[in-house]
Each structure stands twice: as C-alpha cells, then as structure tokens.
Amino acid sequence: MHILLIHQAFAAIDEAGGTRHHELARFLVGKGHQVTVIASPVSYLTGADSRKSAQTIDGVTILRAATYNALHKSFVHRVLAFISFMISSFIIGLRVKNVDVVWGTSPPIFQGFTAWALARLKHARFLFEVRDLWPDFAIAVGVLKNPLLIKLSLWLERFLYSHADQMVVNSPGYMDHVRSRGARSVELIPNGADPAMFNPLDTGESFRQAHGLGNAFVALYAGAHGISNDLTVVLDAAQLLDMDHIKIVLLGDGKEKANLQARAAKMNLKNVIFVPSVPKNEMALALAAADACIAILKPLEAYKTTYPNKVFDYMAAGRPVVLAIQGVIQEVVATAHCGVCPAPGDPQALALALQSLAANRLQARELGLNGRRYLEDHFARAPLAQKLCTVFEELA
Questions:
Q1: CATH superfamily of 196-378
Q2: CA distance 180 to 175
Q3: Which of 77, 154, 174, 391 has the greatest CB tally within 10 Å of its CB?
C-alpha cells in the first residue's frame, strides 16, 4: 500500500517540532507499506527555512513544497503561508504515482483540501486526521476574527469531515465535535510516546551544566511559545518563587518568544532560562535534566478537549507533570497519579505546585515513574501505530 501524507508542519526525528507523524510513518514502512510525505521546508516551530530537498529517512520519502516564509509575522501572513503550501503541495502531489490512500491532517486545515483533491483525482481513499479543533481554537483564542474567514473556515471544516472516507482524531475530546459536523467513520488514535526514546534514570547532567542549573529544582516547559501556551503565567509564577532553588527552563520557539524574553528581562527574573528548540532525538537529554515538566494552555473551554503531545513525552521521560490544563488530559494525569494540576491561568497556584514538588523530590520522582509505567501500558507508540496501520489496511 502506498500512503501519501500532506503535512506542512511535518518534522523528522532529527528536526525540532512534533515528530508523531515521522514515528508513525516509519512504523508503517516497517510493516511493508510505502509512505511519501509532502512537507514544507519552513519549520512550523521556529519559522526558519531548512531548504532541504527531497530526502529519505528511515524509509520514508519526504518531498518539500515551496512555502511563503512568514509563519510568525502575523495571522494574515500565516494564512498566506498555509495557502501557498496548499497550492505547491497539490502540484507536487500530482507527480506522486500509484497512491492508495491520501492522508490529510489538521491543523492547518487548508492542507486537508489538498489531500481531498489529490485523493479524488488519483481515485484513492481519503483519510483525514484531526489533531486540533481548528477553526474553533483559533476563534476561541482570538486570532481568527474576520466574519468571512470564520464562515469559510467552518464550511471547509464541515466539507472535509463529511467527505473523508475515514477520520482519525488524537483526543477523545474531539469525537463528539467531528461527528456533529459531518464525520461518518471516526477512530481514536491518541497521542502517545515511544518509551524507548527516553531513559527515566538519566539525570541530564550535561544539559544542566550547559545551562548553569546546578542542583536547583528544575521545572521545564518544552514546546511552542505562542499565544495559546499562556507562558506569561509561567513568568508570573517564577516571580513568586525562590530564585536560587527553583529554576524554570522554557525550551522551544514561537511567535511570542521575543515578547516573553523581553518581559522576563523587565521583571528581572534570574530563575528563568530560555533555550532554543532542539531536535526530537535530543529531547530526552533535556527532559532528563528536569525535576518536573510544565504543560499549560490558556483557560479556555475549547482546550478541555485536547491531548497535548508534550504531556506524553513528559510521562515517557519519567518526570512529574505540572498540568495547568483542565479536561480530558487532566483525567489521564489523575488516573496515572503522575503529577499535580494547578488551576489554569493562576500564577500563584502554579508557583505553589512547583514549591510543593521541590520540597519533596522523592514524591516528585515517584509521580514521574507512575507516569512512565502508565504510558507504557496505555500510550506507547508501537501499539497505537499498529492500530493506525490496521485502519489504513482496512480502508485501502
């Protein structure tokens, strides 16, 4: 079976960003299937242009489609970047032969239209994956305001859901939403992590030394620095903490990073360290250096439906999760007994949660190991990838 994936934000294992799709694709290749990916040369996380030509990694063929490089300038420029990829990926996709299934994924939702069009032209099946309830999230956070754009986006969402031969969602919180908007056949393939990528016994000493962390209790956030991530709350919490004994590391990139750095400097926060994004195959060392890991989103009703991928990496690394997100992911952390859940949007609650873990490192360690065990039993990458493989085989 030949699977064609259209994914603007695709990141290989040796790149920064979410690597869920590369991990799944190489599993499919290991099962004897052919996987071709059309991706952007522009990093979705950093906005940098990697300018990579076609390449094959772990048996997965990756083709790069020219993309307008302005992801982090403004929402209008971001939409132009999405549309440019939608068009260029379609042109490249026309040249890919003998395709059995076209795999579309959202966000950004525009590339889903490309996947649908290619599937129909190639007489292939169309699988559409939802990783984010766009445009609802964009409307909720206030970046999508134009009434016409909202109307068009909602129409496109319904069109893709109702025209997909098969839908996949990565959070149980999305099931009712996609069904209510036209999806017929829906499978849950939740976010997870590969336990083999992480060693919960590693102390990350080289990372600690490189960033002057010493013996401090380290709380690490890894991921995008965007509007949705509410990292100003983390800075406000840092101001309430003992700056000598508790350090906060913000690892990653995004549109808001420069603003966050300026705010931290103005607040004279000596306990906050900004670290650039690292490739996924270096993430294990960064997480090993942490005593706890932070996951946070703005306190919006819409975000109660999401399964943030970083939480599962934290669990795989055996680190306690400090979860400032309510909803379905909170149920996972509570069931696994793998962290603490301060109220979203509350700097004081976040600071108290970090102080509590720092005061009892043995308890924090036990919470982290609980998460590792739970992930191995319920959210390990291999069985989830096998479920996806079965979905593809039945669809084709």
A1: Glycogen Phosphorylase B; (3.40.50.2000)
A2: 9
A3: 174
Measured between alpha carbons, how far is 395 from 382 in angstroms, rounded to an integer? 20
Residues 126, 102: Cα–Cα separation, whole Å = 5
DSSP string, 259-306: HHHHHHHHTT-TTEEEE----HHHHHHHHHT-SEEEEE--S-GGGGG-
> Is the overall model pTM greater than 0.85, yes or no?
yes
What pLDDT sits at residue 52? 67
Residue ranges per structural domain of the chain = 2-192+380-395, 196-378
- For the stretch 2-59, pLDDT in tens is 999 999 999 998 888 889 999 999 999 999 999 999 999 987 776 677 656 778 999 9
| Per-residue confidence (pLDDT) for residue 42, from 0 to 100 | 84
DSSP per residue, 159-174: HHHHH-SEEEESSGGG
Please, what is the average pLDDT of the chain? 94
Q: Would you say the CATH fold of 196-378 matches that of 2-192+380-395?
A: yes
CATH T-level topology, domain 2-192+380-395: Rossmann fold (3.40.50)
pLDDT at 305: 97
Look-up: residue for tokens 């609650």? 349
Other beta carbons less than 10 A from residue 308's beta carbon: 20
**pLDDT, average across residues 369-373:** 98
Buried b (16+ CB within 10 A) or exposed e, 362-379: eebbebbbbbbbbbeebb
78 vs 154: CA distance, rounded Å: 18
For residue 192, give the 3-state DSSP assignment.
coil
Is the CB of residue 102 less than 8 Å from the CB of residue 127? yes
Written as six digits, the tokens of 8 are 């603007």
61's CB contacts (< 8 A; 6+ apart) are 34, 35, 36, 37, 54, 55
